[in-house]
Each structure stands twice: as structure tokens, then as C-alpha cells.
Design goal:
This protein is an alpha/beta fold. The chain is built from 8 helices and 9 strands. Strand 7, helix 7 and strand 8 form a beta-alpha-beta unit. Helix 6 crosses helix 7. It is globular, with a radius of gyration of 16 Å. The structure holds zinc ion (ZN).
Length: about 220
């Protein structure tokens, strides 16, 4: 399962944005790699559902997740996904929808109509470990409510902002009824023994093509 942020031709100057932004060309090369290797894409919710029903890990499958709901999810990412018959999961921060450089609700609905999963990433992009249980619940619930109200989406999965979580978060998640939640701890999802601390693999621009190809080759080989 891969984690993306911005996909844009203009690379931001700030250190984090600079490291995490990949170009549309890099994404295209990655999607070509998946096609060449005969790998499939699946949404995070579908992956979790497959594992939960005891079907085991889907073979030759990768999950692409895009965090933070940037406008380029619609303008750059969606056309490429369509072109390569791929699906992805988009983790959205409800308070940023409709703000500068971010998706509008009409974009969210378009992603949903195109078969993409819309997941929750919080009301604001805050570190959950700095909030008490009530504050964490409010972040989770307000985001889910907004998705329900404006996009008729019932979020199935969650991604923690900056991957941050603590024991309170895990308790909040267990009570939330969400199927799973994702951290930014590095690793492959192999089981649902810890459904609210599932790992992902961050895609960094510097290594976007070679690192992705190496992982895709490993998925194909079934390792
Ligand atoms: Zn984020």
C-alpha cells in the first residue's frame, strides 16, 4: 500500500512538500509499471474487506492512497488512474475541502463516481496525540459527517494525519465502527490483527520510480 500526497509539475519549495510531491510523469511511469507487471489496484476498503472475509491477501495487488485532498487529485491523478484502469483511495480533511489548492465537493463526488474510495483524514490536519479522547472523536466524527452530508460517502477507512496516533486513538477507532485505519509506519499490510495501525509505504519524489518498481516486482513475485 503506497502513500502519495501532491502530484504536480510544480514542486513546492518547503522541505516536506518538496520531498512528498511527485510529478504526473512519475505517477504515469508507476502505473505503466503496474500494467507491465500485470498487477491490479484495489481500494484500501476493498483490501480490508477481502482480508476480513478470510480470503487471505489478494495476490498481485497494490493499493494507492492519496492524502490531503489536493486539487491535483482531480486534475492530474484521476485522468491517469482512468487511463490505466486503476483505482485509489483518497484521504480527505473535511475543513480544507473547497479551500485554495484543494478539492471542491463536486470533485469529491466526481472521484466517488469514478469508483474511487473516499476515506477520512480528519476535520483538520492535526496530530491526534495532542488531543484527548473527546477531541479525537470530534476530529473523526466531523470529517465523517461532512463526507456523508456533502458527498454521500460513508467512510470505511481512516488515515491519521502525519501518521500520528496513540492508545487513545486506537480506542476511539475501535468505537468508531470504521473498518481500518492507516499510519505512516513503513510496511506492507499482511493481516488485520491490528486493524487500526496498518502500515503504508510513503512515495518520495527522489526515489519514486526505482523504489516503486522494486516493491511492485516483489508484489508480483509474491514475496
Ligand atoms: Zn495528511
Amino acid at each position: 500500500m503506497f502513500t502519495y500526497h501532491m502530484v504536480a509539475w510544480r514542486i513546492p519549495n518547503d522541505p516536506i512538500g518538496n520531498a512528498l510531491t511527485i510529478t504526473p510523469q512519475q505517477l504515469r511511469t508507476q502505473l505503466e509499471t503496474l500494467q507491465r507487471l500485470g498487477l491490479h489496484t484495489m481500494t484500501a476498503a476493498n483490501l480490508v474487506a477481502e482480508i476480513a472475509r478470510g480470503a487471505g491477501l489478494p495476490r498481485r495487488t497494490v493499493v494507492l492512497t492519496f492524502d490531503d485532498g489536493y486539487q491535483n487529485a482531480r486534475t492530474e491523478v484521476l485522468p491517469l488512474l482512468r487511463r490505466y484502469h486503476a483505482v485509489a483511495t483518497f484521504y480527505l480533511i473535511s475543513s480544507t475541502i473547497g479551500t485554495a489548492r484543494h478539492l471542491r465537493w463536486s470533485d469529491v463526488r466526481a472521484l466517488k463516481s469514478a469508483g474511487m474510495e473516499i476515506g477520512a483524514h480528519g476535520r483538520e490536519h492535526v496530530d491526534l496525540t495532542e488531543l484527548d479522547a473527546t477531541g479525537q472523536f470530534a476530529q473523526v466524527n466531523a470529517c465523517r459527517r461532512a463526507l456523508r452530508r456533502w458527498a454521500m460517502v460513508e467512510a470505511q477507512t481512516y488515515a491519521y494525519p502525519s501518521g500520528r496516533y496513540n492508545a487513545t486513538t486506537l480506542a476511539v477507532m475501535r468505537r468508531s465502527g470504521l473498518a481500518a485505519a492507516f499510519t505512516e509506519d513503513y510496511g506492507e499490510v499482511r493481516s488485520l490483527s491490528q486493524p487500526y495501525r496498518l502500515p503504508r509505504i510513503r512515495v518520495l519524489r527522489e526515489s519514486a520510480v526505482p523504489a516503486f518498481s522494486a516493491i511492485a516486482e516483489a508484489v508480483r513475485a509474491g514475496s
